[in-house]
Amino acid sequence: MFNKEYIFEETLPFFKKLSEEEKSELILKSSVVKYEKGEIVHSKNSSCTGLLVTISGNFRVFISAPSGRQITLFKLYDRDVCMLSASCAFTNLTYDVNLESQSNSEAIIIDSSLIKKLSSSNFEVMNYILNLTQDKLSEVMYILEQATFFSLDERITNYLLEQSRYTDSCLLYITHENIANELGSSREVISRILKKFEKEGKIEVSRGKVKLINL
C-alpha cells in the first residue's frame, strides 16, 4: 500500500508549503481510484472529476467530433498530473475534453473544490496550476502544429517511432483504429498508408500488430 503523503510530496511542488491543516485536508479529500483499460475517467458531459495524479498505468486526453473521430492531445504516465479534469471548478476555465485510461490504471483524485479553495488562499498552489495548464497547452499546440503542417505519412511515422521508444520494442501491439484515434484520422486512411509503408519494406503489419523494420 502506497503512502498518499509521499506521492503528494513527490508530485505536487506546493505540498511542502502547505500548513499541516491544509496537508491533512488534502490527504483526507483525495481518493485512490482504479480504472480498467478503455474506461472513460472524465468527459465533456461529466461533473468536475477532480485533479488526477497518476500512480500507475497511463491515460489519454482527447477530443472527439460528433462523427466519432478523435484526436489525442496528450498522455499521462506515472506521477503525471491532469488539471483539465478539475478545471470546471474555476470560473471561465472549462475544457471539453475526454480522459480515458489506456491500461489498467490507478490514480489519486483530489477534490476539485479543495483545489479551488487552496489556490485562492495560497500563491504556490495557484502558480502551480497556471504552470501545469501552460505546460499542457504547449503539448496541445505541438499536436496542432503536427496536424496542420505535417503530412499524415510523417505523423504516422513519428507516432510509430514514439511508441517504439516508449515500449522499447519494434513490435507494437496496436490496431489501425487506435492509430486513427490518436491522430484524428479515419481507420481506412490509416490502413492505406500502413499498407504503403509495408510495400516499401518499412514495416510489417498483422492483426493487432505493427512491426518496425526500416522506418
From TrEMBL:
Keywords: DNA-binding, Transcription, Transcription regulation. Residues 14-62 form the Cyclic nucleotide-binding domain. Residues 150-215 form the HTH crp-type domain. InterPro entries: cNMP-bd_dom, cNMP-bd_dom_sf, HTH_CRP, RmlC-like_jellyroll, WH-like_DNA-bd_sf, WH_DNA-bd_sf. It comes from the Bacteria. SMART domains: HTH_CRP (SM00419). PROSITE patterns: CNMP_BINDING_3, HTH_CRP_2. This is Crp/Fnr family transcriptional regulator.
